[in-house]
Amino acid sequence: MSPGGFTSLRKETAMTTPAIADDLVQPFEIEPFHLRGRLVRLGPMLDSIVRRHDYPTPVASMLGEAIALAVALASALKYEGVFTLQTKGDGAIRLLVADVSSSGAVRGYAQYDAAKLAQAVAAGTDFNSVPRLLGAGYLAFTVDQGEDTERYQGIVALEGATLSECIHHYFRQSEQIATVTKVAVRQGGDGRWRGGALTVQRLPEEDRAEVTGSREAREDGWRRALILMASSTSEELTDADLSPEALLFRLFHEDGVRVFRTHGVRAECRCSRERIERVLRSLPSAERQDLGEADGSVTVTCEFCNQSYRFEADAVAAIAGA
Ligand SMILES: [Zn+2]
After folding, report:
1. What are the residues whose beta carbons fall under 8 Å from the beta carbon of 298, sequence distance 6 or more?
2. How many CB atoms lie within 10 A of CB 43?
3. How far is the CA of 268 from the centre of ligand 1 (A)?
4. CA distance 66 to 96
């Protein structure tokens, strides 16, 4: 059995790939130790989301981490709908939102306080510091599978030096499958953003028809995988010239790593004129009027993608009358 029904390709030797694929999730397994993992590589997709907003570097960097982590976590779930990772805090970055649809459409945005951010930067804060940039608050995961289905939500206090640590804290608290993740985001000399994430999970024993090897060997394997994972560098995770297979092979080749078919992710918003219209229609008329310009028109800008939708006065009147 392979997780997620992927066809397995055994990689005994390093392969030469004609062009290195980007913006993808590479699932893998370290079978002898019952470990499953995901390597996320983000290039043009991350760059287009982050640069669309022209955020200051620390905000762009944090949002990049949130997006890479959301892609990594979403890819380990079976769902039809939208997975959202969101943080809310009282620090310079008030809000981070990253969501990933089951078809691989990804979007994200941040809200920040410029004055607080300038203070944090002046104090020499690391650009991935949760306490310094996000402050006190919470991290939430939501899986929305549409109307008539139960919304799943997991929530944890922002406790940890980095977003990865907050996620570890969540998995420890929620007693879910042991999960460890590492994330890296950087802006290259050409100004382009890249991101990467590596996640390793212990497969539940009951997932296996027959459990091979002793419990002790699996414990050792888990610890070994964590050490190897920690040894991967931010440069490796974000290196456009290093294929996902080559990186996994470099890290785990002695342990029998197998890679599965990759799946792509892309920057794509789900906003549309129809959706905005529905939102406007659902607002109390007083609120709708507050949005109106002097000429009675309403312009709504999508926070995710910055696209503006303008409704002329007669269109607004039609919405109000509907
Ligand atoms: Zn949008």
Report:
1. 280, 288, 291, 292, 310, 311, 316
2. 20
3. 8
4. 7
Report CA(20)–ligand 1 centroid distance (Å): 29
Mean pLDDT in residue range 60-72? 97
DSSP 8-state secondary structure symbol assigned to residue 132: I
Task: Give phi and psi for 203, each to the nearest 5.
Answer: -70, 140
57 sits in which H/E element: helix 57-75
Residue 117 alpha carbon to ligand 1 centre in Å = 25
pLDDT digits (tens, 9 = 90+) for 100-122: 999 999 999 999 999 999 999 99
Residue 98 has pLDDT above 50, yes or no: yes
Q: What is this structure's pTM?
A: 0.88
- CA 322, CA 316: separation in Å to the nearest integer? 10
What pLDDT score does 212 carry? 61
Residue 7: predicted pLDDT: 40
**41-61 confidence digits (pLDDT tens):** 999 999 999 999 999 999 999
Distance 270 CA to ligand 1 centre (A): 6
Which residue type sits at 98? A
Separation between Cα atoms, residue 183 and residue 150, nearest integer Å: 30
Highest mean pLDDT: which range of 18-32, 99-113, 200-214, 217-231? 99-113
Largest CA distance in the chain: 74
Cα–Cα distance measured from residue 204 to residue 247, given in angstroms and rounded to the nearest whole number: 25
Q: How far apart are CA 38 and CA 76, in angstroms?
A: 8
Strand blocks (E) in 212-251: none
